[in-house]
Design brief:
The longest helix is centred in the C-terminal third of the chain and has 26 residues. This protein folds into two domains: 171 residues, Isopropylmalate Dehydrogenase; 164 residues, Isopropylmalate Dehydrogenase (3-Layer(aba) Sandwich), CATH 3.40.718.10. It contains twelve helices and twelve strands. It is α/β, with parallel strands linked by helices.
Amino acid sequence: MLKILVDCFGGDHSPQANVEGALIALKQFCDIHIILTGDEAAIRGCLEGKEYDAGRLEIVHAPEVIGCDEKPTSAIRLKRESSLMKAIRMLRDDDSTAAVVSTGSTGALVSAALTRIGRVRGVIRPAFCPILPTMDGGLVGICDSGANVEVKPEMLRQFAIMSSLYMKHVYGVDSPRIALLNVGEEPEKGDEIHQKAHILLTETPEINFVGNMESRDLLSGRYDVVVADGFSGNVLVKTTEGTALELLKKLKKDIFSRTIYKVGALLMKKMFADEKEFMNYQNYGGSVLLGCSKTVVKGHGSSNAVSVAKCIEQAYRMEQSSLAAKTEKVILKYEHYED
């Protein structure tokens, strides 16, 4: 039985979304055991009236919550009884626990994972890798999307290796096409870090490197993974998600602006509903922290129950694929700079 910890506090819709997401996952996978961390009374309130397998659901009381406005390093040190830190400590100390899912503070989660859990042997720094849909019906991962604002060329190579293995073994993408986010497609584009990274990626036979990518091509379907520093990757992801949401809002506003548009929209109701679901980031789970010695998944702060369930599914599939062991085997082939 695979044990997965779910931090039930810190998100915009916590604990309701976290608890309901856990219940969805319990029905989806018969071989998981979920441990919910957080205020026990609040969690039990969310479970009231719900049907679930009580033998596969456990609650660990944690009265404190780490807010997104708190300094991460101080919060993880001072709030030892928080839902996040209880989950992290259990993941570290209990070998029977496999993964943690959280929709809380990103900074606190990364700091806690690095200092309390540690990295896969050989990994310089773990990196976030969220998933977005592409226009041809596929998926694209963005690695890194916020964990590392400053990077070295060797770190970008490691991001490429880790995310390539992730897309192959968790999403079944054969020989994932890897691109390097840059200001132009030519090899000589960008600063010295990106130029050197381009050379390293070209010299790495374990990945299918297809060259530089400009941000406008993210959802084109031409790439399976885009490698970036955490700052640029985070901006890329949030700009893309924000643009999709604003376009949906404008489309809805325009439809209701004229009667003839309303009639046309009624005839195309199913198509609009499908497009809305396609662009809804809640349907694609969260950002996995690749390179961590145990599985860590960070959900959107605004995650609903469906998104939390998807995050749990991501954690489940990472563990089923033994991704950490596969990552270590490839990473250790290459020399790297220490922190």
